[in-house]
Design a protein that fits this description.
The protein is mainly alpha-helical. It is 41% helix and 6% strand. It has 4 helices and 2 strands, in the order αααββα. Strands 1-2 form a two-stranded antiparallel sheet. Strand 1 and strand 2 form a beta hairpin.
């Protein structure tokens, strides 16, 4: 488990059933595993719990992804641009940093295998 269900309840400050809390954990776990996979250790590296709790709290706070709602003359707009099980760019960076994965353009090698240099000028073949 990436976090305890009691920690999620404490973060939300509201009563959440075991089933909903477990589902939020499982969805957050699935999203995180989809990004960093088997690189997560037991116990999880620093930073992973923060991301997992943030995602789970978003799932429970605004599961429909509502940006604003109106009742009569009252309009409420939600400032959180992220909804549901979407990982933000900051969360993705934090996850990759936590597991030691490189991020950014430096991690890509798009050159075909046959174009790679096999010998170097300063070495004799």
């Amino acid at each position: 488990m990436l976090f305890l269900l009691a920690e999620l309840r404490a973060l939300l400050g509201t009563a959440v059933s075991d089933e909903r809390a477990q589902l939020a954990h499982d969805l957050a776990y699935d999203a995180i595993m989809g990004e960093v996979g088997a690189r997560i250790s037991t116990p999880p590296q620093n930073g992973i719990k923060t991301v997992a709790l943030s995602v789970a709290a978003r799932i429970l706070t605004n599961p429909q992804g509502i940006r604003s709602e109106q009742a009569g003359g009252m309009l409420v707009s939600y400032s959180d641009a992220q909804t549901g099980v979407i990982l933000s760019d900051d969360e993705l960076r934090r996850l990759r940093r936590a597991v030691g994965a490189r991020s950014g353009a430096g991690m890509l090698d798009i050159a075909p295998v046959e174009s790679r240099i096999s010998t170097y000028p300063w070495r004799q073949a």
